[in-house]
Amino acid sequence: MSISMYKASVPRLANALNNLDHLLDKAQSHIDAKKLDPKTLLEFRLYPDMLNMTRQVQIASDTAKGVVARLAGVEIPAYEDNEHSIAELRARIAKTVAFVQGFQAGQIDGTEDKDIIVKRGDKETHYKGMQFLLGHAVPNIYFHTSMTYAILRHNGVDVGKRDYLGTP
Description:
Elements: H1 5-34, H2 39-42, H3 53-72, H4 86-101, H5 105-108, E1 115-120, E2 123-128, H6 129-154, H7 161-165
Antiparallel strand pairs: 1-2
Helix pairs in contact: 1-3, 1-4, 1-6, 3-4, 3-6
């Protein structure tokens, strides 16, 4: 049985982002209940050389929209990375979920061997479609989502494994 690139991407990415949105909803409830400055969570990082929570969410979003756009051969929408509140991060996630879910199976399936080139500054990394999806993008989204979870948990937000996993 072969894997459907669509089923391995669009539903999984949307699910991960919706779970991330749920975590942020719980973060906002925590902020409201404890009367915290939202920056306490938004700017928190687990270690000085790690990215803060806002960047963790932005990168998860960027990765999701980037992988489906590259697989489908369409332009990746650019977001400004100017979110300064939980509500703005949640809006970004909603926009990303809508973008990801806007693809049909015919646009993604059959891209297992598609050449994908990712440019970061002067460096190019070459992948095949399935390698990019399963070896880079999906682990990257889960990494940044789990870092967001860890930041929230460390700061006393009442989140647990079920909040992270959601309903797969």
